[in-house]
């Protein structure tokens, strides 16, 4: 018997369901994503040829503006919650749940510990107008920077070995203020620090320039 030749038909794929899924995912991420809060202070860091990138986790970051105000920041909301709860217990700050959440989900903090309750009760715009963001005290009479370092380290849990201490100072920060900060770390027996800088091209003729421009094998 002769074979029956079946007619060929073009394959048609209905993309409607896939488009629906794509828009559902897009809507989910738009509604669920929380943007990083704005930092309370802007600094212009000095330049260097160091290409090491600032890690995204396990970092204690100390930002210093041109007026010498020191701000503290740390990654990880569970870690931030432990830190502020420990400070609240130790210094009897009387923080409520809303104020604790403000610290956990907020940006850098730069206020004396005695002003933390009032500081955290305000919005970001109100803090700037209140004058409470005068920076963490670092002078010898009242060096609260050491307390932030201690409680920040304690909040890290099992990741202390990977912890990095980073200083992000403005190009115009007075050197005595930087020295106070470095002396505080030295008293805590912390010798390895990371200075945050802007990347610039290595000077022509230097070893770094020759390495960067060496022909690829």
Automatic annotation (TrEMBL):
One Pfam family, short name: ExbD
UniProt keyword terms in alphabetical order: Cell membrane, Membrane, Protein transport, Transmembrane, Transmembrane helix, Transport
GO terms for MF: transmembrane transporter activity
Any GO BP: protein transport
Origin: domain of life: Bacteria
GO cellular component, one term: plasma membrane
Entry's localization field: Cell membrane
Record's bilayer topology term: Single-pass membrane protein; Single-pass type II membrane protein
Similarity section: Belongs to the ExbD/TolR family.
Protein name per the record: Biopolymer transport protein ExbD/TolR
